[in-house]
C-alpha cells in the first residue's frame, strides 16, 4: 500500500523546474550575458526536477508486509511493523507512527484523501495503541 502525494504537489515541482530553465534560456534569446544568478537558477531547476522524479516514483509513504517506509531524497525512515508501538495525531494535525526508536510523521495536507482513508483502514487493523480518530 502507498500513501500518494497530491498530484498538484508533484506537478508543481515539475512546473517550477521548467520555469527556472525557461528563465535562463530567455537570456540566450535576448542575448544577455550569463551571470552567477543564472547558474543558481539551473541548480534550482535541477533540484526541482529531482524532487519531481523522486516524488513521482516513490510517493509519500510505502507500507509493506514487513515495514513502513518514508523515503526522501537524502534519507529514508523505516519502521518494522512488529516494532510499531502506537499511532496518534499530534497538535499540528499530523499523523504520527511511533516505533521503538523512530517516528514517522504524515502530513494529511500532502496526501491524497483516498490514500489517507486506506491508511486509516490499515491502522484500524493493527493491534497497537491508537489515538487517531
UniProtKB/TrEMBL annotation:
Which keywords annotate this record?
Answer: Membrane, Transmembrane, Transmembrane helix
Q: Where are the transmembrane segments?
A: 12-30, 36-54
Q: Which protein, by its recorded name, is this?
A: PH (Pleckstrin Homology) domain-containing protein
Q: What is the organism of origin for this protein?
A: Leeuwenhoekiella aestuarii
